[in-house]
Amino acid sequence: MTTIRAAVLEGVGGDLEVQELDLAPPRAGEVQVRLLASGVCHSDLNAIDGTAETRCPAVLGHEGAGVVEGVGDGVTRVGVGQHVALSWAPSCGRCAECLDDLPHLCGTAWPMMAQGTLLDGTTRLSRGGKPVYHYSFISSFAERTVLPEASCVPIPDDVPPEVAALVGCAVTTGICAVWRSAQVHAGQRAAVIGCGGVGLSAVMGLAAVGAAPIIAVDLHEGRLEAALSLGATDAVQGAATAEETAERVREASGGGVDVAIEATGRSDAMRAAFLSTRRRGTAVLIGIPAEDAVLELPALSIPRMERRVMGALYGSARPERDFAVILDQYARGRLPLDRLISHRLPLDGIGEAFDLLRSGSGRRVVLDLAD
Length: 371
Known about the structure:
- By secondary structure, this protein is of the alpha/beta class.
- Helix content is 29%, strand content 27%.
């Protein structure tokens, strides 16, 4: 048993408090990682405010990178001393979804994630002998973590840990929604609605494949400026209604876009994305809405204009393939991932990190967890 410091959420609506916890060693098929960096993502905020039901007490955080320092029986993909980026979407390789080549929708992993456990239905985190629950298998707001081997993707040692951490969720979600889910190609007209970390990643993914124009949409001027600096060709201020926002996008794009990426989780933004598309256009919905959210669309335009709506979970990514592709493009200077990072804070700065996230004043906040 190892004693670690970690940020604990006691219950919905509470603050994260850095405490000492016990971390049990990895069991069969599991890995212990000394964390070097963790991104602070809007999905973590969803757990805090109750948008996403989360079993508590829990250690949040699902964008992590670090160094392997212990392995359980049967682990073959990684070894002690190896640098890894962490994926919150491990797959079993045996369920119906995995056999259909949809490992990011694994029917074995998702129920365990909802329980706040690892894949065997138990936790490695505890406090005073009582369980503390995992978040998305990762629990990266901590000094160390134990997680499934399938969540560990080897990366080159020279990749900055803060960049590798963001690749674990926001970067892959945004870029792969463009590359894998929508399969956008050069010359297609595109819009990104919501320019937080995921949306800005989508902008970079669109720029990398040669989409044009790329219309960035947000309420915050600072985010629009960031999008323009990362490859967007035009910036549109979000309006009071979905209809007005869509009209601004159609005007900026010369009649509508082929692909509209929605990255907020709000129903009005999803509707705006759909209404922004031209004939045979596709609205790609990335953001995670509240469980009771409803999306209303003009039904007649779906068959008559062949408009489409597509959900994209993790950008339909295969982490063991796509992390390497993304990091290679970063190393070649084609994806300026480091420019997503606006703030670096220690673990004890977790409260400030969420204040920045709520205010929308930062691009991406990263916790520096290196010893």
